[in-house]
């Protein structure tokens, strides 16, 4: 199925079509609260924890909301069941970050029949655009491209053996980051030795990296971790193998969490591409705009940075996640 967001113009969170709409007001307490069901993927990473905190803060009672929160433990069936439950509870709006891109058509058609608007947060899906009102998240394809361009420039003409720690299989960040990275390194002397999922978790990254090292040993020169947590888990495996992360094995990661930037500042990571998790305020504005019948853009993207070691050192004192 054709990816739903291809070719769609996007705007930064700050410049959403809903600019000027506030997430709450001083008179919110005197108004009927907006009931929102939020189905989160789970709590698999530091990024996800920061994202959940941002959403809960934005959808507070003080801002005029009542939030019904559900974490799916990264199981698609749990998340779909949560959305069914939100429909049965007659919430005013449904927000979710999809565990995987597929399998959403039926439940979203039910939400549409119940006249409950759906707002996608963080991740995209492959269902028809008519089944959701809008999406707000990060540009995963661009993140992968940025990481890949750095890798290509870093290796230059030196033959380089790479392994990849993939995110959750079938998830939009795993799909798009791989696509962007692979396109960016095309024509470089980088050879892919292996690529496996670590499910975006620190434990998964460690386990998979241990397997890579047992199989390929010191022939590995480069690691692309599709999120910081997997890269951080890999550090333990690399050190246990008697190798020095950041030197013997160069590491490029995506997320830009405090722990990830700390590893970069210490020279254990070599480059980190940001994926902004603080999406709550923007999503809350979109929910209010959609419920008010205002026109909003179909797709809205956050602005992501990228960090060298020096930039990480400068950013860490004020890093919010």
Outline the secondary-structure elements.
Blueprint: E1 34-40, H1 46-58, E2 65-71, H2 76-88, E3 93-96, H3 105-113, E4 118-122, E5 134-137, H4 140-155, E6 160-166, H5 172-184, E7 190-197, H6 202-216, E8 222-225, H7 228-240, E9 250-255, H8 258-265, E10 271-274, H9 280-291, E11 299-301, E12 306-307, H10 309-315
Parallel strand pairs: 1-2, 1-3, 3-4, 4-5, 5-11, 6-7, 6-8, 8-9, 9-10
Antiparallel strand pairs: 10-12
- Give the CATH H-level superfamily of the largest domain: Response regulator
**Major β-sheet profile:** 6 strands, parallel
CA-based gyration radius: 20 Å
Query: How many angstroms does the end-to-end distance come to?
Result: 35 Å
CATH secondary-structure class of the largest domain? Alpha Beta
Ranges where pLDDT stays below 50 over 5 or more residues in a row are 1-30
How confident is the prediction overall: mean pLDDT? 92
CATH architecture of the largest domain: 3-Layer(aba) Sandwich
Level of helix content? Answer: 25-40%
Within the largest sheet, what's the order of strands?
2-1-3-4-5-11
| Total discrete domains | 2
* Shape designation: elongated
Strand content: 15-25%
What order do the SSEs take from the amino end to the carboxyl end, as H and E?
A: EHEHEHEEHEHEHEHEHEHEEH
Number of helices: 10
Number of strands: 12
What class would the helix/strand composition place it in?
Answer: alpha/beta
- Looking at CATH, which topology of the largest domain would you report? Rossmann fold
